[in-house]
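Quick one, tokens below:
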């Protein structure tokens, strides 16, 4: 070590300054560095931090910049190890990175190692998966030629990251690379394989494969050097297997090790107390569980004083470790919820859920990446808010205080499409804060570039080109972070408005509802579901069956439609849905003509084809069935808050301009055609031409692009100028990677010029009142818990469209054309709203085609007003 430092010292002096120019004794700086290293070996981390900090100051004064950067990095590593002052960790590593790049070049091993540390920083926060992935990839690209051990470790961390995101195939590929790198360095059985073995155990634990996880953890246990982590993971396996006593023994061993390892308070000690509390929770010993959770909070939060009083309350900003804090608070809330029916305990449960809510808001405001926020929704929001809603209902039952009903509605709204709500609110905040056009354009450009390079880095097969895309992604990620800093400093009004978003209240919704409309906000829960019924003058919460029961009923109904079931079978499955979702609220539906369905899950269900009577049918005829669409005009939205936002602005009946695209409109008609394959769609030409002529008759401006003229570039060039965008084409959903869903335009040599991908749609400059996606599966996509269906339609809503009509499955070319022609007749000649127009068009098609299966008209739904 001394030889290494001496050599580095000589090189540093030769590079930066002469010995005569050094005004500060750099030998003292080296001495402090060595003292710091010795303190690290003795596990005296806090004293070591002081030594490296003092050493860094001396190196900085001596203009030994690389050594100064080394000190910054070492301090950052120790703070990360101690899991304190997380924002300073980023500052230290980022500052060191800039120095290394300037002095050593972009591909130096120290640059690669610092990228790895920045990846660790973002990964540890559990909410910045996109940033962490980008930094890890940069580290791998630099280190792979220079240090097999460290590149192996980075592959392992990247695998852990993908494992947390449930991207199993990607995680396995990373672990395979990790193992191959280790094999290049060590012989089989070397103790330095133990980190890899432990990580594989964690991977299988996350997948619920407890036996495999146990096998790996036992193997890791045999190596010795047992930290609290191995005991915790063994305990978790046993807890999953229902072996509670064994789990408790291992968690207590973990606690003993952690307290010896860390002086005073520490995050890891708090986590172990949470583990022990969960065992007592499983046993039904709720008071014991609360005692453990309280101790966990004491060790997690620096100025938390009371480790005994379970009713002690603390504010969310008392902790630097938000997700760990949420884990403890939500567990504590659950224990109070189960402890008793006493008012004091229920109020304590509610308080802790409200604290979780504040923390989740804080986390989402920190992170601007769509897919990281959706991860937050999937992992936390969808689990915490339904429980909070249930507590509010119990409090209302005991007190009859309407405040608790309003809180229940608040929590239900927070569990629905949180990211989409925040994104649309941010768009509104830009207008209110009068952001300069240059800033808005710059932000839009950066988002578009990030979207493009994220997608290209996913689908690119060539390794060299893939690296180039990843490099570009890194550059634009840094530019986006820089812009965020500028926005926070120079435009505080916008930043403040951006984060003032609150869910819609019952009163606000009632102000926008007319007397013929009822809003149904469905909230599905593992133990019990409920529907919030809101009318102009009334509000009620009505209990429903648990989510698993509802899912089975909805799946059977969906299959009956997809399989074109006979009238008898269809009636049975359809009426089951009515009994499950609507029968208990029949009294609220009397006299109503419009239904607003506010729930992200139900966006996949064509409720218009549900029947409200168990009628006797003949073998073939469908038109006489008592569909809900015959009674109600039905619209959907991801949440009640988003529906309320969609009511702002001009009325949808004031149609001005139209652009229609039909890229596959040539050729002769076929007997059966759908808009999900790659063939021609001859009816789409008739569809676009007929609608174009409607606008011409009304003296309204319209443009139509057919066949080869209907290019993606033409669409992008013209879309910002039109109120209605209509695409009659092929589209492809992607249930695994939502950002790869796409709309097909006229084929070009370059696929990027042919397909409009979902993620690109999010950042289009739209002003459209209506987008009609007259294509297959445009309303279908990967389902994200707490956010809903990640479809093409959702992308257009995010981009600013007020209303979107999309399809839930493959669209028949002929009947789609008929439905669309009827739709525009109602919009243009009857001056109906978009919801009413679609309602009438469907009923007309049913009347015109009495034997037509509901599959052919029910697939199109409207999300919006």
């Amino acid at each position: 070590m001394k030889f290494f430092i001496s050599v580095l010292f000589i090189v540093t002096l030769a590079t930066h300054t002469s010995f005569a120019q050094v005004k500060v004794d750099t030998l003292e700086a080296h001495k402090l560095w060595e003292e710091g290293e010795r303190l690290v070996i003795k596990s005296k981390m806090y004293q070591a931090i002081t030594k490296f900090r003092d050493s860094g100051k001396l190196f900085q004064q001596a203009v030994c910049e690389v050594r100064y950067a080394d000190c910054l990095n070492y301090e950052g590593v120790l703070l990360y190890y101690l899991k304190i002052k997380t924002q300073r960790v980023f500052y230290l590593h980022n500052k060191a990175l800039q120095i290394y790049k300037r002095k050593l070049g972009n591909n130096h091993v120290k640059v690669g190692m610092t990228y790895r540390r920045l990846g660790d920083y973002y990964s540890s926060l559990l909410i910045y998966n996109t940033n962490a992935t980008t930094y890890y990839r940069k580290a791998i690209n630099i280190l792979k030629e220079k240090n097999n051990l460290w590149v192996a470790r980075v592959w392992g961390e990247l695998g852990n990251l993908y494992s947390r995101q449930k991207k199993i195939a990607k995680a396995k590929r990373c672990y395979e690379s990790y193992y191959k790198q280790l094999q290049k360095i060590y012989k089989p059985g070397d103790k330095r394989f133990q980190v890899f073995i432990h990580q594989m155990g964690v991977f299988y634990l996350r997948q619920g494969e407890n036996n495999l996880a146990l096998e790996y953890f036992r193997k890791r246990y045999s190596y010795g050097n047992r930290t609290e982590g191995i005991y915790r993971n063994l305990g978790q396996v046993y807890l999953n297997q229902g072996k509670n006593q064994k789990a408790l023994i291992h968690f207590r061993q973990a606690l003993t090790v952690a307290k010896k390892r860390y002086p005073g308070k520490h995050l890891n000690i708090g986590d172990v107390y949470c583990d022990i509390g969960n065992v007592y929770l499983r046993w039904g010993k709720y008071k014991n569980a609360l005692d453990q959770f309280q101790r966990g909070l004491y060790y997690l939060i620096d100025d938390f004083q009371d480790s005994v009083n379970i009713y002690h309350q603390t504010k969310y900003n008392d902790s630097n470790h938000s997700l760990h804090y949420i884990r403890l608070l939500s567990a504590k809330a659950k224990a109070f919820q189960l402890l008793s029916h006493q008012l004091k305990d229920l109020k304590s449960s509610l308080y802790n859920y409200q604290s979780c809510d504040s923390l989740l808001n804080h986390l989402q405001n920190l992170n601007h990446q769509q897919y990281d926020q959706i991860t937050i929704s999937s992992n936390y929001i969808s689990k915490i808010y339904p429980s909070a809603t249930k507590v509010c209902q119990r409090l209302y039952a005991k007190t009859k205080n309407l405040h608790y009903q309003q809180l229940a509605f608040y929590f239900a709204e927070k569990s629905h499409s949180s990211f989409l709500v925040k994104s649309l609110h941010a768009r509104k905040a830009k207008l209110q804060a009068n952001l300069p056009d240059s800033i808005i354009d710059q932000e839009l450009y950066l988002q578009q570039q990030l979207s493009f390079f994220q997608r290209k880095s996913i689908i690119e097969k060539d390794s060299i080109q893939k690296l180039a895309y990843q490099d570009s992604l890194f550059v634009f990620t840094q530019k986006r972070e820089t812009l965020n800093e500028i926005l926070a400093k120079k435009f505080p009004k916008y930043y403040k408005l951006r984060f003032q978003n609150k869910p819609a209240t019952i009163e606000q919704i009632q102000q926008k509802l007319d007397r013929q409309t009822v809003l149904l906000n469905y909230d599905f829960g593992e133990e019990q579901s409920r529907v919030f019924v809101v009318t102009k003058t009334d509000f009620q919460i009505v209990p429903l069956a648990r989510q698993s029961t509802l899912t089975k009923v909805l799946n059977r109904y969906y299959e009956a439609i997809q399989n074109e079931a006979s009238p008898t079978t269809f009636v049975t499955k359809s009426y089951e849905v009515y009994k499950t979702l609507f029968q208990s609220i029949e009294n609220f539906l009397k006299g109503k003509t419009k239904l607003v369905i506010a729930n992200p899950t139900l966006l996949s269900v064509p409720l218009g084809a549900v029947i409200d009577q168990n009628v006797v049918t003949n073998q073939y005829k469908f038109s006489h069935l008592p569909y809900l669409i015959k009674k109600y005009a039905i619209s959907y939205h991801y949440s009640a808050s988003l529906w309320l936002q969609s009511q702002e602005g001009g009325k949808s009946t004031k149609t001005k301009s139209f652009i229609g695209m039909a890229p596959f409109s040539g050729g002769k008609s076929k007997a059966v055609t759908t808009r999900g394959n790659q063939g021609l769609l001859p009816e789409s030409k008739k569809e676009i031409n007929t609608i174009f002529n409607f606008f011409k008759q009304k003296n309204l401006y319209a443009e139509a692009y057919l066949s080869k003229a209907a290019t993606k570039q033409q669409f992008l060039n013209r879309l910002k100028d039109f109120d209605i965008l209509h695409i009659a084409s092929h589209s492809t959903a992607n249930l695994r990677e939502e950002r790869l869903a796409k709309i097909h335009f006229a084929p070009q040599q370059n696929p990027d010029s042919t397909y409009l991908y979902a993620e690109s749609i999010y950042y289009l400059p739209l002003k459209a009142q209506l987008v009609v996606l007259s294509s297959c599966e445009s309303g279908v996509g990967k389902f994200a818990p707490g956010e809903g269906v990640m479809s093409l339609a959702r992308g257009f809503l995010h981009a600013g469209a007020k209303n979107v009509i999309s399809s839930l499955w493959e669209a028949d070319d002929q009947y789609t054309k008929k439905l669309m022609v009827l739709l525009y007749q109602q919009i243009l000649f009857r001056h109906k709203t978009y919801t009413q127009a679609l309602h009438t068009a469907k009923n007309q098609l049913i009347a015109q085609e009495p034997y037509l299966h509901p599959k052919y008209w029910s697939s199109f739904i409207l999300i919006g007003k």
